[in-house]
């Protein structure tokens, strides 16, 4: 694998920034179907990032990762979630723990934190430029933020998937990382999706809503 | 073309072109909505018609009401005159500055709001307060965009920024992408386009900008309408010039003969960019619905945060 | 590069049997219809795995980029397969009685047995993995196999527990993956692209050259990620519910084995970062989290009303002590930590064996409703008493020995830390003993005889693993074989 040009890296960063913007957009939406569409867009950007990395690193196995991201996360998962939402009759607005404005501010603070953490790392010594690492870490932290500030199980699941998108972004941007990690990530998405589906049905059977605040009435701690 | 001549050409160019751009936007929107729509030259006729009519002024109006259209139009015209459109070789270019630009637009907005409140009508006050709320978020966002652009190129003058970008000083930067997104959102807010404000609405309770100019007629209204059109042209020139500067003439002192050709090319490029941006605006407006007023803060807050991110990211990329 | 990575062990290599048998039997059990046969197949597979792990003690294969055996993980492999075996035996008896009480359908049972072996496979793979990515995959797979089993009974509480378990552990695992990627990034400039930069045996030699900032960042993510799976406070909230809601054999292996595996992964990364002089010292972080787990759990023990939750908190407490010991570092504290890991595994799984039978007999899991065990079921009752006294840390059981070693080594090095440590241990002791007193002595409570005619064989089978474990713990408390001691000492040295 030869050296990678600066402009190739810049293109990679731009695509990574698109993934990050989609992460912010996820926090911004108030309607559930908009959230699912934004997640599909994020997965699309991720597939583009993986494909670009495959091209510039001359690593063909990354094309598989790009394909998996495209097919699974950009198509199958949003479609399946749309279908689940219809089937279970889930309430279509997003219930938030914090107002959207404060959530966005917290998101920017997290991005700032990622950048601060990454700054001490010297530029040349890594396989991944500082910027790619900051982008990936930001996406992970934004996914985490989304999981924390959402009540509905569907949006929490989407937050978890956004977190995984950040992980895949980090993995594909790391030069020469073996396939094992990528397969494992894809594998976990598959199984996670299956599990989530089962859970949705089970939770729906037991309770009438997917609002996890209801789930918390039984907090095992009080026993 | 010397700097003086270029400047004079620019001053008249922006005023001459503005109604055409607005007319083109309206035409495309009409087509997309399934109507044939008025010709793109209609705004010229509208302005001419208004100029012929008598300006009716309320009894309760003060001198502010009468002066506001002139101040507004002048401020916007001045701002548009100093932003490079087809060439960077303008006489007043050294006086141009992104922060001064924000100040000029703020001045125009301030006087419009005063005029809206001056006559004492309910709608005028409502429009003024909404406009100020939008401004309180849009101005910082635009300043953040200026900061990131200045940090990249080391100067706040749009002329020099464009020269820097054309000279290859910056490649594909994440911060540029983020700044572009933020600037587009700010431009929508400043110009009162959908999803912030519907320029074609007749329902007063949904108005922002239109509410402030409800009381105007005749030449005053012509000036206010003209200011809105010039403002739109200004933002298109800004976005097209900074983020897609190719084609713009950057004259060098030696080759004066080739300069004229370069400036022709620059003019053509500018017209093309305005055409593309106007079409895009029309398509965008047709696709999206106007958002409710309480969501303005989210939208503009998003623009502000994008601008903030653009600035922060400069520190992690090696650009600063 | 791929060929390097996926070199599989040959037939003479015990590793093949240790990994292949659980995997194969998982597949086989998924299609086997008769649950009675399935329980025995389960036990047989566990026997073969255990015997192979014993063979591993003599015949250590050379490390490949995928798998390796060194002093540290060989004893954990033996421990895991042993407890897997005894739990399989217990499970055979326990499942018989559950089926007679009609709590589990045939499909559920097929699923249960298959997942049990799959779970053992993932744990053993995690222990023997050289590639940090493969280790991560195995820990993730272990979580996934157990999540579905936790919700096996399909009650409201079980579903909530499984959901919480899944979400929190998946987030933790995701962060651990990020840490793993960061370690690769730190290693890559020094060791080149590809599988080399993910192989632990190769990395540990060059770790002093890695970039310290990246290593620091990586370790924080790994600590939060794998620490969630260990159950360290404040990341522990999934543990009590998950360990309490599944079938008891699952609780036994979760508490006894999976926590160890997660801690093992954490320790491997701790060794990497300790090898680099410029990176942060991981000790204080581990000490802090260990102490907070200990205290939090010790206080929570006082108010528990559910018997399985009580012992789940006890697991948190003990993992806190172990983490504290490894955080202290040094030969004595590391030795104590290793000993405690072993003793805790044996004792805690033994306790869950007893708890399983108790709750089946009494028909309830509430402590308030369980009384007078030593009168109504003497063998079970006294076994339970011994087990609880062991886990509470009473001499002459092995747990006391390891706790004593931790306290003395702490007192020798950082006397101020020994005070909260001892205090926490005493608090936990008090809570456990008071609960024990309520349950074991006094007038017997009601006994549900809804388990039909469970044969005497199954009753004996249910209790044997408990007594076997307790015997081992007692022996370890009185006398540790010389080989075992020197073995622990060499591992303690590696741990630094």
Describe it for me?
The complex is a heterotrimer of chains A (223), B (320) and C (496). Chain A has 223 residues and is mainly alpha-helical. Chain A has one domain. Chain A is built from eight helices and no strands. Chain A has helices at 6-28, 32-57, 61-88, 100-118, 130-148, 153-173, 179-206, 212-215. In chain A, helix 1 (6-28) runs antiparallel to helix 2 (32-57), helix 1 (6-28) packs antiparallel against helix 6 and helix 2 (32-57) packs parallel to helix 6 (153-173). The longest helix of chain A is centred in the middle third of the chain and has 28 residues, at 61-88. The N and C termini of chain A lie far apart (59 Å). By secondary structure, chain B is mainly alpha-helical. Chain B has one domain. Chain B contains eleven helices and no strands. Chain B has helices at 3-32, 42-52, 63-82, 98-118, 122-153, 158-166, 174-191, 209-212, 218-243, 256-287, 296-316. The longest helix of chain B is centred in the middle third of the chain and has 32 residues, at 122-153. The two termini of chain B are 36 Å apart. Chain C is built from 20 helices and no strands. Chain C is mainly α. The radius of gyration of chain C is 22 Å and the shape is globular. In chain C, helix 3 runs parallel beside helix 5 and helix 13 (307-328) runs antiparallel to helix 14. Chains in contact: A-B, A-C. The interface between A and C is large, with 51 and 56 residues.
């Amino acid at each position: 694998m030869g050296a990678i040009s600066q402009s190739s890296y810049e293109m990679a960063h731009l695509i990574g920034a698109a993934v990050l913007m989609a992460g912010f957009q996820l926090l911004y939406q108030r309607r559930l179907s908009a959230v699912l569409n934004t997640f599909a867009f994020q997965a699309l950007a991720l597939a583009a990032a993986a494909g670009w990395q495959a091209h510039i690193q001359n690593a063909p196995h990354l094309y598989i990762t790009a394909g998996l991201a495209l097919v699974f996360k950009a198509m199958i998962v949003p479609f399946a979630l749309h279908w689940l939402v219809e089937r279970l009759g889930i309430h279509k607005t997003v219930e938030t723990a914090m107002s959207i404005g404060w959530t966005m501010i917290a998101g920017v603070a997290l991005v700032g934190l990622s950048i601060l953490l990454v700054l001490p790392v010297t530029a040349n010594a890594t396989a991944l430029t500082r910027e790619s690492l900051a982008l990936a870490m930001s996406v992970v932290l934004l996914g985490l933020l989304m999981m924390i500030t959402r009540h509905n199980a569907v949006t929490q699941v989407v937050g978890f998937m956004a977190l995984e998108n950040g992980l895949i972004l980090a993995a594909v941007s790391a030069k020469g990382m073996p396939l094992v990690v990528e397969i494992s990530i894809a594998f976990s998405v598959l199984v996670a999706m299956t599990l989530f589906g089962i859970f949705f049905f089970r939770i729906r059977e037991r309770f009438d809503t997917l609002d996890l605040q209801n789930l918390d009435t039984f907090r095992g701690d009080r026993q | 073309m010397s700097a003086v001549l270029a400047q004079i050409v620019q001053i008249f160019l922006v005023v001459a072109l503005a109604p055409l751009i607005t007319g083109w936007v309206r035409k495309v929107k009409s087509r997309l909505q399934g109507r044939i729509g008025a010709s793109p030259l209609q705004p010229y006729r509208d302005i001419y018609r208004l100029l012929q009519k008598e300006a009716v002024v309320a009894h309760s109006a003060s001198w502010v009401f009468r002066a506001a259209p002139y101040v507004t139009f002048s401020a916007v015209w001045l701002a548009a005159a100093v932003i490079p459109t087809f060439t960077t070789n303008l006489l007043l270019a050294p006086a141009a500055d992104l922060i001064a630009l924000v100040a000029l637009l703020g001045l125009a907005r301030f006087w419009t709001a005063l005029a809206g409140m001056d006559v004492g009508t309910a709608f005028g006050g409502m429009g003024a307060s909404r406009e100020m709320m939008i401004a309180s978020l849009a101005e910082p966002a635009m300043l953040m965009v200026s900061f990131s652009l200045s940090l990249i190129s080391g100067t706040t003058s749009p002329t020099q920024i464009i020269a820097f970008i054309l000279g290859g000083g910056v490649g594909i930067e994440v911060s540029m992408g983020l700044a572009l997104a933020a600037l587009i959102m700010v431009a929508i807010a400043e110009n009162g386009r959908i999803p912030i404000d519907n320029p074609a609405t007749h329902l007063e309770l949904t108005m922002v900008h239109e509410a402030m100019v409800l009381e105007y007629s005749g030449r005053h209204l012509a000036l206010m309408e003209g200011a809105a059109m010039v403002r739109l042209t200004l933002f298109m020139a800004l976005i097209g010039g900074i983020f897609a500067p190719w084609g713009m003439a950057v004259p060098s002192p030696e080759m004066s003969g080739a300069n004229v050709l370069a400036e022709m090319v620059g003019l053509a490029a500018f017209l093309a960019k305005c055409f593309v941006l106007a079409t895009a605006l029309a398509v965008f407006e047709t696709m999206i619905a106007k958002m409710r007023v309480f969501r303005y803060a989210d939208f503009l807050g998003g623009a502000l945060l994008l601008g903030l991110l653009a600035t922060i990211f400069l520190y992690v990329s090696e650009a600063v | 590069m791929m060929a390097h990575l996926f070199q599989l062990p040959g037939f003479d290599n015990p590793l093949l049997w240790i990994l292949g048998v659980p995997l194969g039997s998982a597949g086989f059990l998924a299609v086997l219809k008769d649950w009675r046969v399935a329980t025995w197949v389960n036990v047989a597979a566990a026997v073969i795995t255990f015997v192979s792990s014993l063979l591993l003690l003599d015949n250590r294969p050379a490390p490949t980029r995928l798998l390796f055996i060194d002093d540290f993980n060989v004893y954990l492999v033996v421990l895991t397969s042993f407890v897997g075996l005894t739990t399989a035996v217990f499970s055979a008896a326990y499942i018989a009685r559950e089926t007679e009480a009609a709590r589990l359908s045939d499909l559920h049972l097929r699923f249960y047995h298959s997942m049990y072996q799959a779970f053992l496979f993932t744990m053993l793979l995690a222990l023997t993995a050289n590639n940090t990515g493969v280790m991560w995959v195995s820990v993730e797979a272990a979580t996934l196999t157990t999540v579905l089993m936790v919700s096996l009974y399909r009650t409201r509480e079980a579903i909530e527990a499984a959901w919480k378990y899944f979400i929190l552990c998946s987030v933790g695992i995701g962060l651990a993956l990020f840490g793993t990627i960061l370690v690769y990034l730190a290693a890559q400039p020094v060791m080149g692209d590809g599988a080399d930069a993910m192989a632990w045996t190769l990395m540990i030699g060059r770790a002093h050259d890695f970039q310290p900032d990246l290593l620091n960042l990586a370790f924080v993510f790994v600590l939060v990620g794998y620490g969630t799976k260990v159950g360290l406070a404040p990341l522990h909230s999934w543990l009590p519910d998950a360990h309490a809601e599944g079938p008891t054999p699952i609780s036994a292996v979760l508490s006894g084995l999976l926590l160890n595996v997660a801690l093992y992964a954490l320790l491997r990364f701790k060794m990497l970062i300790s090898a680099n002089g410029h990176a942060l010292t991981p000790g204080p972080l581990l000490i802090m989290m260990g102490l907070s787990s200990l205290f939090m759990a010790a206080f929570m023990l006082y108010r528990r009303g559910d018997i399985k939750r009580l012992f789940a908190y006890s697991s948190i407490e003990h993992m806190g002590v172990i983490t504290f010991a490894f955080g202290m570092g040094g030969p004595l504290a590391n030795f104590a930590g290793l000993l405690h890991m072993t003793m805790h595994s044996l004792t805690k799984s033994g306790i869950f064996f007893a708890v399983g039978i108790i709750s089946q007999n009494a028909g309830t899991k509430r402590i308030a409703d369980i009384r007078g065990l030593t009168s109504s079921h003497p063998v079970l009752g006294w076994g339970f008493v011994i087990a609880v006294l062991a886990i509470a840390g009473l001499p002459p059981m092995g747990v006391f020995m390891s706790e004593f070693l931790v306290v003395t080594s702490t007192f020798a090095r950082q006397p101020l830390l020994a005070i909260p440590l001892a205090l926490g241990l005493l608090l936990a002791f008090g809570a456990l003993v008071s609960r024990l007193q309520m349950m074991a002595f006094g007038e017997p409570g009601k006994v549900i005889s809804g388990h039909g005619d469970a044969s005497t064989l199954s009753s004996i089978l249910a209790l044997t693993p408990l007594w076997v474990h307790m015997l081992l713990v007692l022996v370890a408390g009185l006398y540790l074989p010389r080989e075992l001691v020197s073995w622990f000492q060499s591992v303690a040295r590696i741990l630094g």
